[in-house]
Amino acid sequence: MKRISKKRKEVLSKVDLGKAYSLVEACELVKAISTTKFDASVDIAVRLGVDPRKANQMVRGTVALPHGTGKDMRVLVLCTPDKEAEAKAAGADHVGLDDYIAKIKGGWTDVDVIITMPSVMGKVGALGRILGPRGLMPNPKTGTVTLDVAKAVAEVKAGKIDFKVDKYGIIHSAVGKVSFNGSMLKENANELIQALIKLKPSAAKGTYIKSIALSSTMSAGIQIDTKSVTA
């Protein structure tokens, strides 16, 4: 018979892993069952009733989380010299163009978001093979290819995130940290869920929000009653 660890027993005493909770309950429970010694991330996984292989069922967008993700986002701005000062003033961690393009070609990708301008996309586009698989390729749809680089940097630093459905029809995103209170986690998660609902493709048939789960780093997932957030 498989032995249940002490931490597993503690989790099972606090949460019924087979039950679907309200979003409010799940946000409190995910904090209660986190056993890491560091400030763990809280993540949400939303399974959608779409076929990502079809272009007219692709779900992708951005959302500004009311309380941010709790992570200090490292931002690189690839821009022309006349935009460098405003990018730095807005809080960008790295600003430049040719020197950073060379660094990226050499394997450097130690950033969370890359913002650039339409006029330099010819140079940035050559980095697609490196940035694409890492989810770092700038895209006009996510607001990371723009003339107003200062605004884009400020939004990312304030909690704006981008999301994209994966090949299994699931949206994965961080919605905060275990140190957040339950209300902050609930508001962040709900903001993302409502954004997904608004982006429902007209070609998607049947149930759109199939399941939602909330978890922290190394914790079990807590199922959320979809009716509690989609009504």
Short description:
The chain has nine helices and ten strands. It has 231 residues and is of the alpha/beta class.
Descriptive overview:
The chain is of the alpha/beta class. It has two domains: 18-68 and 161-230, Ribulose 1,5 Bisphosphate Carboxylase/Oxygenase (2-Layer Sandwich), CATH 3.30.190; 75-157, Ribosomal protein L1/L10, domain II (Rossmann fold, 3-Layer(aba) Sandwich), CATH 3.40.50. It has nine helices and ten strands. The protein has a five-stranded mixed β-sheet. The protein has a three-stranded parallel β-sheet with strand order 5-4-6, sandwiched between helices. Strands 3-7 form a two-stranded antiparallel ribbon. Strand 9 (209-216) and strand 10 (222-224) form a beta hairpin. Helix 2 (23-32) crosses helix 8 (182-198). The longest helix is centred in the C-terminal third of the chain and has 17 residues, at 182-198.
